[in-house]
Structure of Glutamate--tRNA ligase:
Amino acid sequence: MSVRVRIAPSPTGNLHMGTARTAVFNWLFARRHGGRFLVRIEDTDRERSQPAFTDSILTGLRWLGLDWDEEPVFQSRRSRDHQEAIAALLANGRAYRCYATEAELNAMREARQAAHQAPRYDNRHRNLSPERIAAFHKEGRHAVVRFRIDDTQDILWQDMVRGPMRWQGADLGGDMVIARRAPADRIGDPLYNLAVVVDDIAMGITHVIRGEDHIANTAKQLLLYNALGAPPPCFAHTPLILNKEGRKLSKRDGVTSIADFQALGYTAAAVSNYMCLLGWSPPVELGERFGLADAAPVFGFDRVNKAGGRFDWDKLNWLNSQALHAMDGATLRNALLPRWQQAGLDTSQPLAWQEQLAALLGPSLVVLQDGVEQARPFLGPPELDDASRAQLQIEACQAALHYILQHRPRTFNAAAAKELLTAAARAAGVRKGVVMKGVRAALLGCLHGPDLLLSWDLLHGVGEDDPRLRAVLR
RNA sequence: GCCCCCAUCGUCUAGAGGCCUAGGACACCUCCCUUUCACGGAGGCGGCAGGGGUUCGAAUCCCCUUGGGGGUACCA
């Protein structure tokens, strides 16, 4: 039987880190076993679902390189299947209509809480007499559909991450609602657990890989598989991604959507690499910097951790800077260009020149966005910061700059610039460092940055060096 | 509250009873490279939550405690 897995996000927000990591594990598992990776959009919550989020999710997956093998399935379009399944369960007695009112349910919950017990439905309408049902109908009461859960039942499964798992029927909160409230002669909208199982069966899902926050759902879903007469898939419950405080990472934690990371200038390679590292430890031969394609052949749940992992910006930043440093000038320039343009910088220079600039800046970038501020003084007039102004106040510095402008060699290059600096320092009677700082201040407006000689040469290439040096002369 | 899960440096982790004087990576610190910053290179700091067992021997197995997390919907 060939492997079929799926990622099943609900379009109630952008593609989130947690969802993306689950998608990565699913994708890796599918590729490892030559199976298929599918996407199902769980848009049955009409209140909160938005088409724009579906786009965001699909775009995010694509950006990460998680290509899917069949057209995405939209859960909302599968309601007939859901209805039929519910009707079948109703027909064979595994499910029944419950007419309990909200007030009744609340009373139950409060009573249980007062008794220090877990809230649960007491199955009061499980075996209603025909007379009472008739009475409820006459009353015009609406009903939900509940699925019978035998309290004495032990639910067992072999989890690919956690090993043997066991859940007691009694801890599931009573007979579970599988269809929303509706007039008693109809079947309401299907609820999560029912829809998931029906769809996973229809899609032929063989392995369900999801976060550990779904463990209780798995117990319920296993019961549904049984009642629907379908063999259950294998389950893998992966550790959660935790925030700085050690809680489940949520949208409330600031930057958590894949689109955010992309906007900040993280590369897809670094992000997917990092997600692999959070919870999965690659075999030593792989090292810890690798692409999804490298990880796929060796991926397995035997090396997936059980404990949740905290999201660590430092590690992601390191991975991203490594990815950026490894780029050649041409690649980096292409990655930077849209950001330069968006920042309104002049990008009319020759392509080769821009590539040289990118190569010069490369080693100091952590995220692509860093390349905007750092390129700014090269792509437009420099704005002198305080330290630069102070440097240019120094008498000897001014003298050296005068010397430099007067002794410009006919053919300028980095080597010539170096000699010029030495000569200027000697003429002005100061250490070369003082002159270098002054030149840097004049050319770029700040005292720190990439190699001065290369920077100077680059500015010379677009005729920007002399004017800038002159501009700071008193 | 109740149910379930988890527990190695600050963080991510290696470790399947002797290979452990607990290894790696990030972060941090020092030095080198560099008359700047960064990159790069070399070192360093730092951990098996606690207590009981089992065993000749335990980070590894069992129990308890503690701590942390998840779940407890007519959301997904």
